[in-house]
Specification:
This protein is mostly helical and 237 residues long. The protein contains ten helices and no strands. Helix content is 78%, strand content 0%. The model has no long low-confidence stretch (mean pLDDT 82).
């Protein structure tokens, strides 16, 4: 859990700085910063997606995950949770045209979808090595600053998702222990999970650039389905 706690601290610091800085930035600068973040998110998404050794695996993972996510209405659940938080925290932030819900959901997805989140959390839980999460913490700190400056203080609430999701993975890895075997960046299921996560990150980037709104929340099951397909294919062979 050490890596997750460091991650939470950097997001809080970056988000707080971005909140105070954002209110003093002209609208055009905010738009330009958001466009820059969106472009970088697209680049990260492409890099992740291209790590696949078999593009059919992330493709079917996203398709199946999308169907499951739509049936479970994950995106609606995230938005409802965001609105619930917004109602109870509005008096903290004051009246702000920037939606707390959008900031919370966007930041939560960006901070929690990706190979560093899962791989770093697993390594932290299994061995206590939080080096990967330390690297992710630095990236998330700068990202939260940019997000808070443009989307608003709702970004700070994403630490709840970080604690529950990333911290939860570390605790599960700690519980299962060495039964999970050695995990590296080149482990087949990690590569395909990374690629599936990259496709979701691309969807986030498109939304940040206001090109196309993708219900990325409903695609989240793909990140779990990808490694399952890898294991299934290995078993069939």
């Amino acid at each position: 859990m050490t890596g997750t706690l460091i991650n939470i601290i950097t997001v809080l610091i970056g988000g707080t700085l971005g909140t105070f800085l954002g209110a003093r930035l002209p609208e055009k600068i905010r738009e330009t910063v958001m466009a820059a973040v969106g472009l970088v998110v697209l680049v990260i998404g492409f890099e992740m997606a291209l790590s696949s050794q078999n593009i059919l695996i992330p493709m079917f993972s996203v398709l199946i995950g999308g169907v499951i996510g739509e049936m479970m209405r994950i995106e609606d659940g995230l938005n409802a949770f965001g609105r619930w938080l917004e109602e109870r925290t509005q008096h903290w932030f004051g009246e702000d045209e920037r939606s707390v819900t959008r900031a919370f959901v966007t930041a939560s997805l960006v901070f929690c979808v990706g190979p560093l989140t899962v791989l770093g959390a697993i390594q932290d839980g299994l061995t206590g090595d939080y080096q990967l999460l330390a690297v992710k913490s630095v990236l998330d700190g700068f990202t939260s600053l940019a997000f808070a400056a443009t989307l608003g203080p709702g970004v700070l609430l994403s630490v709840i998702t970080l604690l529950l999701y990333q911290g939860g993975i570390s605790l599960l890895a700690m519980a299962f222990g060495t039964a999970m075997g050695e995990v590296t960046r080149t482990t087949p299921w990690v590569l395909e999970m990374t690629a599936a996560g990259g496709i979701l990150v691309l969807g986030i980037g498109l939304g940040l650039l206001e090109i196309k709104r993708v219900r990325v929340g409903n695609l989240l099951p793909a990140v779990l389905i990808a490694p399952l397909i890898v294991v299934l294919l290995a078993w069939i062979r």
